[in-house]
Amino acid sequence: MLISRYSVVVALGLTLSILACSANGQPKGPIPAAKVDAPLATSPGKQTAVFAGGCFWGTQSVFERVKGVLKTTAGYSGGSASSATYSQVTTETTGHAESVEVVYDPSQITYGELLRIFFSVVHDPTQLNRQGPDVGTSYRSAIFYTTDEQKRIAAAYIQQLDAAKAFPAAIVTEVTPLKGFYRAEDYHQDYALHNPDNPYIKVCDLPKIKLLKEEFPQLFVDYKGQ
After folding, report:
1. Cβ contact 209:62 at 8 Å
2. What is the chain's mean pLDDT, rounded?
């Protein structure tokens, strides 16, 4: 719920919240690039990727600052259209995951590079059905692939990272076909950008933006809103 996210810092204390939001399972420094990937396209275009990595506020705040990303939308994937509302999804009974639709130019960034950011900056892929203080299947780690190529690249990358022991625990990220993406309510769009003083955003999401800039400076762009 929105109230629970906003009050988590106050309720638990700043120190506990920092620990809860930090990705304790994350590696030190960027993880290896994907060995299996699509080549950069020879001409500009548009492709779509959908990722779920905990609260969609933070996921969107990262991807909208990535070079080559043309548009991001916070929404819900994994359930039905009739149940794709925030009040229903937060009951943890709809099958949805808070997700972000990423429209990108494949001539500027590859799907494998998006995956690298997803795993190393967006969230901790070793946490099952939670991210930090957010607990439930709606906060699960998932890749909703839109093509067989995306499925192949994602599966190979997870296998690569697990084999390399890039994380201190096994990756629990689901790789599942996208059956539908449903746009979230307007107030969720660019939420971190419009609410930088929200305690949840300060503790859980602004550090992700900082990490993106530090670890992938060549891909970082200063986002001012759509």
Report:
1. yes
2. 91
Catalytic: 55?
yes
Catalytic residue among 20, 50, 55, 115: 55
Which residue type sits at 168?
Answer: P
What's the CA gap between 121 and 45, in Å, rounded? 25
Residue 39 predicted with pLDDT over 50: yes
